[in-house]
C-alpha cells in the first residue's frame, strides 16, 4: 500500500513522466480483486517492475514493496482486501487521464488519492467520512465529475465498521 502512496505522490508532482504509465500498467496487469497478498505475489510484482527503465519513482515503489512484509503484521488485511477494486479503478482512471494528457486532472486526482493507501492501513488521521469529503471528493469538487462515487459506501458504511475490528 505504501508503494501506491509514493506512486501517487510522484504522479502528482510530475504527471508528464512516462514511467508512471509503465508502472500503472504493470500494477494493473498484476492486481485483481481476488489477489492474495503474500510473499510470492509481491515478488512477482517486484520482478515485473524491475523490467521498467530505471527511475526514481520505480525505485521507491520497489523499495516499499520490498519492505511490505515487515509492515503488514500491523494492518487489517480485510480492510486492504476490500480496497483492491477501488485501487484498480483509481489506477485505471489515472492511466486514462495520462493517455489523454490531461495533466491538470492527473495532478488533482493523484493529490486527492495519495493518502488513500495510508487511510486503508489505518495510519491516516481522518475518520472515514472526513476522508471521503476532504480527500477523495476533492477531485470532484474541482472538476465536477463522479470520481470514486461507486465506492462512497465504503467510506460511509464499510470502513467505519472496521475501526474496532481486531487486526489479523
How does the SSE layout of this entry go?
Blueprint: H1 2-13, H2 19-30, H3 39-49, H4 56-66, H5 68-71, H6 77-82, H7 84-99, H8 103-113, H9 116-121, H10 128-136, H11 138-143, H12 152-162
Helix pairs in contact: 1-4, 1-8, 2-3, 2-7, 3-4, 7-8, 10-12
Task: Please tell me about this protein's structure.
The protein is mainly α and 168 residues long. The chain has one domain (2-162). It is built from twelve helices and no strands. The radius of gyration is 15 Å and the shape is globular. The two termini are 17 Å apart.
Q: Which key phrases capture this entry?
A:
single chain, 168 residues, mainly alpha, 12 helices, globular, disordered C terminus
Radius of gyration: 15 Å
How does the major sheet shape up?
none
The assigned structural class equals mainly alpha
Q: What proportion of the residues is helical, as a percent range? A: 55-70%
Average pLDDT for all residues:
91
Q: What is the ordering of alpha helices and beta strands? A: HHHHHHHHHHHH
Low-confidence segments, given as residue ranges, are: 164-168
What's the total number of strands?
0
Separate helix tally: 12
> What gross morphology would you assign?
globular
CA distance, first residue to last residue = 17 Å
Percent of residues in beta strands? Answer: under 5%
For the record, the count of structural domains works out to 1
Amino acid at each position: 500500500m505504501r508503494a501506491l502512496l509514493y506512486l501517487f505522490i510522484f504522479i502528482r508532482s510530475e504527471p508528464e513522466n512516462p514511467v508512471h504509465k509503465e508502472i500503472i500498467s504493470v500494477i494493473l496487469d498484476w492486481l485483481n480483486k481476488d489477489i492474495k497478498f503474500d510473499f510470492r505475489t509481491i515478488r512477482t510484482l517486484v520482478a515485473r517492475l524491475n523490467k521498467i527503465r530505471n527511475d526514481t519513482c520505480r525505485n521507491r515503489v520497489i523499495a516499499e514493496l520490498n519492505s511490505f512484509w515487515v509492515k503488514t503484521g500491523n494492518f487489517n488485511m480485510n480492510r486492504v482486501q476490500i480496497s483492491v477494486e477501488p485501487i484498480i479503478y483509481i489506477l485505471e482512471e489515472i492511466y486514462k487521464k495520462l493517455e489523454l494528457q490531461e495533466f491538470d486532472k492527473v495532478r488533482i486526482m493523484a493529490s486527492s488519492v495519495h493518502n488513500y493507501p495510508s487511510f486503508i492501513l489505518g495510519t491516516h488521521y481522518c475518520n472515514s467520512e472526513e476522508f471521503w469529503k476532504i480527500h477523495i471528493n476533492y477531485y470532484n469538487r474541482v472538476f465536477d465529475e463522479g470520481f470514486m462515487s461507486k465506492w462512497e459506501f465504503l467510506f460511509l458504511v464499510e470502513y467505519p465498521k472496521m475501526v474496532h475490528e481486531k487486526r489479523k
